[in-house]
Design a protein that fits this description.
The complex is a heterodimer of chains A (about 170) and B (about 250). Chain A is of the alpha+beta class. Chain A is built from five helices and five strands, in the order E-E-H-E-E-E-H-H-H-H. In chain B, helix 7 runs antiparallel to helix 8 and helix 8 runs antiparallel to helix 9. Chain B has two domains: about 110 residues, Uridine Diphospho-n-acetylenolpyruvylglucosamine Reductase, domain 3, CATH 3.30.465; about 110 residues, Enolase-like, domain 1 (2-Layer Sandwich). Classes of the chains: A alpha+beta (about 170), B alpha+beta (about 250). At the A-B interface, strand 4 of A face loops of B. The structure holds flavin-adenine dinucleotide and FE2/S2 (inorganic) cluster (2 copies). One FE2/S2 (inorganic) cluster binds next to loops of chain A.
Chain lengths: ~170, ~250
């Protein structure tokens, strides 16, 4: 090419490859056709319109996009959507029905565990994973479990209290 | 890498659905075998490592953060060849190996030979690593890993892995790996060699720590100055080794 600009005929762009995947999201089987490079967080937010999962960094640092993948907390910006094919994903929307609050959500409300709320879905899902495994965690254990989730507002103190509140409530519920 | 568009591979093969690669085990000879899909979190929670491979056990909870550790793998970390990667120094200190498999069969590569630059390995394009191995210790294995990070989940400002095998008091094999202080993981061979053949003494420890600091090639960056990082290499090396003397004394 001799110049910086070369006009070409407007033929069809090379076809983008796609894959069909079926993911169980919050107990419901969802089938979608996706580009292989689509990140799971973006499938949830833009594809399935489940905007409860937030994306704060896209570099797997902040943890706002944390979901449960086959029951374990993962940062959904770390995974491609195609990798979730045949697997189970639980997002913050799956914690409780539209007019209910899960004990963890109640805890965040009661103990002022959020300010702007951006980190909150990730905090809640990481907390859910912790409480599923360890129903009465110590403060240190909570801080450890949430150490991959960043909050710019609260200073964490009330988040830890919120998780303790939820643990007590869940224990009372049996 | 793909997300940041540093890499745009034409095809990406996901190994996550391959069965039976999530294992880690210790064989009768004491060698540790880690399958390609064994996650950092599996190693962190491993009772096997906690009792029998102290250098690996010390590093596992310091890699990334608890959520990232549910996905990341030791083998992936070695293949990623990040000079800041924690497992590479640990495996270098253990004289570790990886088993690579491709259409031409299997071969074993020393972790020290696996990486030839930042994010570059000697693997052929059609090879995958199926397992990492820490060979059988030559005596009772001891050691540790220390890492300075600015916050949880950050890569190391400096990390030091020390592995020492002993028969009685005598050091029969030693390895020291340095994280984050060069273009790739550094094996501080002179420092490790100095420890072999005698007991751990404070003199030997002082000399080894100085040699390890010499082996480091740190650069000044947002994590700290080169001289600070070099100093840390010496402090961490000596702190781990001194801890080994102390625990030996306590056991006696
Ligand atoms: C927020 C964050 C913080 C982190 N902090 C740290 C840290 O403090 N210390 C640290 O050591 N690491 C850290 N990491 C890296 C992380 O621990 C992963 O181990 C590492 O990125 C490898 O991930 P993976 O196992 O999923 O491999 P992938 O990301 O899937 O692969 C990494 C590279 O290795 C290649 N590869 C993977 N497996 C194989 C195989 N079996 N055979 C051949 N090639 C293979 C891939 O092709 C790719 O090039 C961090 C990552 C994140 C996102
Ligand atoms: S958006 Fe996934 S960790 Fe920040
Ligand atoms: S409440 Fe604002 S980031 Fe946590």
């Amino acid at each position: 090419m001799t110049s910086l600009f070369q006009e070409v005929s407007p033929g069809a762009a090379e076809e983008t490859p796609t894959r069909q995947i079926t993911v169980t999201v919050n107990g419901e089987s969802r089938t979608a056709v996706v580009e292989p490079r689509l990140v799971l967080a973006h499938l949830l937010r833009n594809g399935l319109n489940m905007t409860g999962t937030h994306t704060g960094c896209d570099t797997s640092n902040c943890g706002a996009c944390t979901v449960l993948f086959d029951g374990k907390p993962v940062k959904s910006c770390t995974m491609f959507a195609v990798q979730a094919d045949g697997h189970e994903v639980m997002t913050v929307e799956g914690l409780a029905g539209p007019s209910e609050l899960h004990a963890i959500q109640e805890g965040f409300k009661e103990e002022h565990g959020l300010q702007c709320g951006f980190c909150t879905p990730g905090m809640m899902m990481a907390s859910k994973a912790l409480l599923d495994e360890n129903p009465s965690p110590s403060e240190d254990e909570i801080r450890w479990a949430l150490s991959g989730n960043l909050c710019r507002c609260t200073g964490y103190q009330n988040i830890v209290k919120a998780v303790m509140w939820a643990a007590r409530k869940l224990e009372d519920q049996g | 890498m793909i997300k940041l568009r540093f890499a745009s591979p034409e095809m990406l093969v996901d190994i996550n659905e391959i069965p039976d690669l999530g294992y880690h085990r210790i064989d009768a000879d004491g060698s540790v075998h880690v399958g390609a899909l064994c996650r950092h979190a599996d190693l962190e929670r491993s009772s096997l490592l906690a009792t029998r491979q102290p250098t690996m056990a010390a590093a596992a909870p310091l890699v990334a953060d608890p959520i990232v550790r549910n996905r990341g793998t030791l083998v992936g970390s070695l293949c990623h060849a990040d000079p800041q990667g924690d497992w590479a120094s640990v495996m270098v200190s253990l004289d570790g190996l990886v088993v690579a498999q491709g259409p031409r069969g299997r071969r074993t590569i020393a972790v020290k030979e696996l990486v030839h630059g930042p994010f570059q390995t000697t693997l052929a394009y059609d090879e995958v690593v199926v397992e990492a191995i820490a060979p059988a210790p030559k005596g009772a294995p001891a050691g540790g890993y220390l890492k300075l990070e600015r916050r949880v989940g950050d890569f190391a400002t400096v990390g030091v892995a020390v592995s020492v095998d002993r028969t009685g008091d005598e050091v029969t094999r030693a390895g020291i790996g340095l994280t984050g202080v060069g273009g790739s993981t550094i094996s501080a061979d002179d420092a490790a060699q100095l420890l072999v053949g005698g007991p751990l003494t404070s003199d030997a420890i002082g000399e080894a720590a100085a040699l390890a600091a010499q082996a480091a090639q740190p650069r000044t960056d947002h994590r700290g100055s080169a001289s600070y990082k070099r100093h840390l290499v010496s402090v961490f090396t000596s702190r781990i080794l001194t801890g080994l003397i102390r625990s030996q004394e306590e056991a006696a």
